[in-house]
TrEMBL record:
Binding annotation for CoA: 195-198, 312, 336, 524, 585
Presence of keyword Ion transport: no
N6-acetyllysine found at: 610
Gene: acsA
Cellular component GO terms, alphabetical: cytosol
Biological process, per Gene Ontology: acetyl-CoA biosynthetic process from acetate
EC nos: 6.2.1.1
Pfam family, one: AMP-binding
GO MF entries: acetate-CoA ligase activity; AMP binding; ATP binding; metal ion binding
Function: Catalyzes the conversion of acetate into acetyl-CoA (AcCoA), an essential intermediate at the junction of anabolic and catabolic pathways. AcsA undergoes a two-step reaction. In the first half reaction, AcsA combines acetate with ATP to form acetyl-adenylate (AcAMP) intermediate. In the second half reaction, it can then transfer the acetyl group from AcAMP to the sulfhydryl group of CoA, forming the product AcCoA.
Catalytic reaction equation(s): acetate + ATP + CoA = acetyl-CoA + AMP + diphosphate
Protein name: Acetyl-coenzyme A synthetase
Domain AMP-binding enzyme C-terminal: 532-610
Length: 649
């Protein structure tokens, strides 16, 4: 690269961004160094911003071989107290905690103060108790993007119940699987959700799921007012059921290592795993990362466009912002309803200062042209973030220039469900940026790149991304299957946490995530296991075998490409293609809808019967020149058949 090109890689931090910032460049260097050299001292200090019922005397106690991770283990606290009550206790009860912007732009906006939030959470908590929910019980939350979803999460945390939030786009089968896996007897849902004026039949989906697995009680929030079926003795309208509950409910003192929530996420094999986060470390991690990464200042309006069904919603709509006493906007709708300017209209309407979204949304809006942005006054924006997948430099620049007017720092935050919070990012007042690079490790994070044999790669290089030290927000286990936790994350490279991502580190120590190196794909920022889509496909009576890979997609980042072989005697047709698409939607949910179905008489297999996915990925990418060694295939001729099939559509 020429010097000039290298120069152009950088986008300088606007000088004003450092004024009053939570962390400037020299502070970052000093704080990062201390977070490694004196990790216990550093994290004890961060933890001290929270209220503890019993202050921890121990900070970190962990090992990655054998795997045993504890933080603040003898401390007692409650994240709901830190997110809600302590702000009220401090006299900030009138501050707005949540702003609700409904799907319909003409609909009723809600401003919920911290004092009101406390009342709502207590009401929900006491309703859960009335149902019979006790500390340690699992509660499933299947909600639209309405404040009651956050109330339900905080209510669980308040009474020490473990929440398992399921994204509202998942199917009844997916709900049933998750409810069964964590033996959750209770569900909080709503009659319906609304997305782009379309109704999502949440309660009906729960009913269908509960035909497969039992539940003791379902609380139903009335949102659209739809007339939904209610099962006597099991289902209760929340507004009726909560009418007579007490208006006090103390926060349960939780041990720092007591589980806070389970969140199901996809891996390279098997069904989704219930990733478990515990109370103390997660509280400290989300409070600290939110504070430094978004550089939140009192009075500012912060908006994260994620759904509470994903980890981004957990950490950066609910727990991170609220622990910081921030005002967080919750948006029910979608970026393109009623028009492609909705995000910008909402930013203008609520004078949003900090905006956090996903590359897939940026790319989709970029395609619709600048006009939609230009219509709105976006001068309130001060920090903008990106999360969920690699952002291509073109989309980054559009975001920076067209949305941010070239003056707003961007934080491209790399992290995962398992990491609990942000791991690699620039800080708005500390770092120059490079479009497409997440940037530098957050405090306490030690990234390491290794080759496929586990050899450590130094300096400017590319490899598999591992993390060598524990951090407070790290997941502790997979619910009900600790061996799977160890196998998935700590066995590929012994003694290290393996992220599943590929990554490049440049000479400036900036990290560039290149995407997953395992069989996980990232579709519109949603993580999906190819194995899950395969299992759904082979459940269809006409399908014999299926192999699913990701392929580049302009808007979604990756699309879902399915190779399908049919049972003998079955003919492929456009009709069957439509049927299989519907089938996968029904089995998993609309987010798993195949983008491309490729019927083939056979899959490329080695003599021992292993599918050579590398070849399938290349063909899906239309990259036939570098298929590599195909001589180990049982039938090398299948490669040409597959290429023909790819080119003829
Ligand atoms: C990807 C979402 C590049 C990555 C918070 C990771 C990213 C997976 C970024 C986790 C980013 C997330 N740049 N890639 N800024 N953020 N990813 O568990 O592949 O839904 O492993 O957590 O998303 O997805 P998850």
């Amino acid at each position: 690269m020429t010097d000039q090109a290298v120069q152009q890689e950088w986008v300088r931090m606007p000088a004003a961004a450092a004024d009053g910032a939570a962390c400037n460049a020299s502070q970052y260097e000093a704080m990062y160094a201390r977070s490694i050299e004196d990790a216990d001292g550093f994290w004890a200090e961060q933890a001290a911003r929270l209220d503890w019922f019993e202050k921890p005397t121990k900070v970190a106690d962990w090992s990655f071989d054998p795997v045993d991770i504890k933080w603040f283990e003898d401390g007692k606290l409650n994240i709901c107290h830190n997110a809600v009550d302590r702000h009220v206790d401090a006299g900030n009860g009138n501050r707005v905690a949540l702003i609700f912007e409904p799907d319909d732009p003409e609909g009723e906006v809600r401003h919920i103060t911290y004092a009101e939030l406390q009342g709502e959470v207590v009401r929900m908590a006491n309703s859960l108790k009335k149902l019979g929910v006790a500390k340690g019980d699992r509660v499933t939350i299947y909600m639209p993007m309405v404040p009651e979803g956050a109330f339900a999460m905080l209510a669980c945390a308040r009474i020490g119940a473990i929440h398992s939030v399921i994204f509202g786009g998942f199917s009844p089968d997916a709900i049933a699987g998750r409810v069964e896996d964590c033996e959750s007897d209770w569900i909080v849902t709503a009659d319906q959700g609304l997305r782009g004026s379309k109704k999502v039949p949440l309660k009906a989906n729960v009913d269908a799921a509960l035909e497969k697995v039992p539940a003791k009680g379902v609380l139903v929030v009335s949102h659209t007012g739809a007339d939904v079926a209610m099962t006597e003795g099991r289902d209760h309208w929340y507004h009726e059921y909560s009418a007579d509950v007490a208006d006090e409910c103390p926060c349960e003192p939780m041990n720092a290592e007591d589980p806070l929530f389970i969140l199901y996420t996809s891996g390279s094999t098997g069904s989704p795993k219930g990733v478990v986060h515990t109370t103390g470390g997660y509280s400290v991690w989300t409070e600290t990362t939110f504070r430094y990464v978004f550089d939140y200042r009192p009075g500012e309006i912060y908006w994260c466009t994620a759904d509470i069904g994903w980890v981004t919603g957990h950490s950066y709509i609910v727990y991170g912002p609220l622990q910081n006493g921030a005002t967080a906007l919750m948006f029910e709708g979608v970026p393109n309803y009623p028009d492609h300017d909705r995000f910008w209209a909402v930013c203008e309407k609520h004078k949003v200062n900090i905006f956090y979204t996903a590359p897939t949304a940026i790319r989709a809006l970029m395609r619709e042209g600048e006009g939609h942005v230009a219509k709105h006054d976006l001068s309130s924006l001060r920090v903008m973030g990106s999360v969920g997948e690699p952002i291509n430099p073109e989309a980054w620049r559009w975001y920076h220039e067209t949305v941010g007017g070239g003056t707003v720092p961007i934080v491209d935050t790399w992290w995962q469900t398992e990491t609990g919070g942000i791991m690699i990012t620039t800080l708005p007042g500390a770092h120059d940026m490079k479009p497409g690079s997440a940037g530098k490790p957050f405090f306490g994070v030690c990234p390491q790149l290794v080759d496929n044999d586990g050899a450590v790669l130094e300096g400017a290089t590319e490899g598999n991304l591992c993390i060598t030290r524990s951090w407070p927000g790290q997941a502790r286990t997979v619910y009900g299957d600790h061996d799977r936790f160890i196998q998935t994350y700590f066995s590929t490279y012994k003694g290290k946490y393996f992220t599943g991502d590929g990554c490049r580190r440049d000479k400036d120590g900036y990290y560039w995530i290149t995407g997953r190196v395992d069989d996980v794909i990232n579709v519109s920022g949603h993580r999906m296991g190819t194995a899950e889509v395969e299992s759904a496909l082979v459940l269809h009576a006409k399908v014999s075998e299926a192999a699913v890979v990701g392929y580049p997609h302009d808007i979604k980042g990756q699309g879902i490409y399915c190779y399908v072989t049919l049972n003998a005697g079955e003919e492929h047709s456009d009709e069957l293609m439509g049927e299989l698409r519907q089938w996968v939607r029904k089995e998993i949910g609309p987010i798993a809808t195949p983008d491309h179905l490729h019927f083939t008489p056979a899959l490329p297999k080695t003599r021992s019967g292993k599918i050579m996915r590398r070849i399938l990925r290349k063909i899906a990418e239309n990259d036939y020149g570098s298929l590599g060694d195909t001589s180990t295939l049982a039938d090398p001729g299948i490669v040409d058949t597959l290429i023909d099939g790819r080119m003829n559509r």
